[in-house]
């Protein structure tokens, strides 16, 4: 378990480890702001941040085993600008993101962690929604999204949308901020991740 703050930790069997909060500088890149919840992929927590006044997105990561901040490369053709909404997500163990400009929606998935050239993309067509937040993959073709507080599934191959109805929860009662849970154990001392 990690928290914000600074605390010297010498006993390896302690339950809680405190590390410094997000950095102002990561590998020489000045980070102006972090605007999404952390996403755990490959033993590191990831956040989207801005690098400069043109709102260029930067992926900042904190390696849990090395206790170091690093920068993960973004796709080279990622949309940039003040009115671009980018969201990070873990899709089946791959760092992924949705880039939404209102005119274009592009999903990106990093197939080989840390390798800029391994980002693959596909365009998302369909309803003109204010905000889409990717949550998880139901299958290779189906992505579950939070669409302005409503859960929907987008089928990539068929370019089709459908609503998800959750038994016991009335329609439109979902709230933005929906998160998925992926069971895992990360050992801070070894850096190895075990999935159950």
TrEMBL record:
Residues 37-150 form the F-box associated beta-propeller type domain. This is F-box associated beta-propeller type 1 domain-containing protein. It comes from the Eukaryota.
């Amino acid at each position: 378990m990690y928290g914000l703050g600074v605390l010297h930790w010498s006993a390896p069997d302690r339950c809680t480890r405190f590390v410094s909060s997000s950095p102002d500088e990561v590998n020489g890149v000045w980070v102006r702001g972090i605007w999404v919840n952390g996403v755990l992929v490959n033993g590191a927590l990831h956040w989207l941040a801005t690098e400069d006044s043109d709102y260029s997105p930067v992926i900042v990561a904190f390696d849990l085993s090395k206790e170091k901040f690093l920068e993960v490369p973004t796709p080279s053709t990622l949309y940039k600008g003040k009115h671009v909404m980018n969201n990070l997500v873990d899709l089946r163990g791959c760092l992924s993101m949705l880039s939404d400009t209102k005119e274009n929606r592009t999903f990106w998935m990093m197939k080989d962690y840390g390798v800029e050239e391994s980002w693959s993309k596909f365009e998302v067509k369909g309803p003109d929604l204010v905000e889409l937040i990717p949550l998880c993959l139901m299958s290779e073709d189906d992505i579950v999204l939070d669409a302005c507080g409503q859960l929907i599934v987008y089928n990539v191959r068929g370019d089709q949308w459908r609503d998800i109805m959750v038994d016991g929860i009335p329609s439109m009662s979902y709230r933005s901020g929906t998160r998925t849970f992926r069971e895992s154990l990360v050992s801070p001392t070894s850096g190895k991740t075990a999935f159950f």
